[in-house]
Lipoprotein
Amino acid sequence: MTALFGLLLLGAGCTKSAPAYPPMSTTINVENTEVDRSFVHGDAASSWKWHDKAVRIVNETQGRTIDVEQIKGLVVEDPNAKGVFYFATLATDKLETEVFNGIYRFDSSNLNWERLYKQTSPIDDPEAVYLVAGIENGSLLIKKLPYESEILCASLFNESLGAPRSLVRMPLDAPYSKLAPVDVTQDMQYAAKQYATGCNETL
């Protein structure tokens, strides 16, 4: 893997934070249909209060400048550990032939981080980019996408974005295990729709 990575841009960050979602199971009514919401939808990385500090810490503690790995996609808080967040970082090598992707756990109480997953892919790989979309039952919900995708705030749960079955489940206790496809439920569609009311730009 190339030692130095350049900045990867997937679009402008959202300028308005999304509505907060309760980190516990609740019952809601969607078009007169009762739906149990047991997952947490992520929030835009650009509006996350710890964004700048997390970027600096993740890069500097690895001996890099702060413009190497950048947080992209959504950031989600662990429903079972207040102040613990998960996010994805992206970077490219100088020649932009490869994409580096990391999935991190960040504890805001002590500013410690752990890289749960990493991969380096050819830049033309249709699944080169893994973005955090949400969390459910001890697994991160990850959207696999091509490099430089145009990503609307609500579209990480859009099945037409990316390859078929490109929303997958990454177990927190086994992130390198086979990633099973996720069926997008009414619950997820509802949360994505609500999220879009607070963010309609690109990630």
Remarks:
- Residues 24-196 form one domain.
- The chain has two helices and 13 strands.
- The radius of gyration is 16 Å.
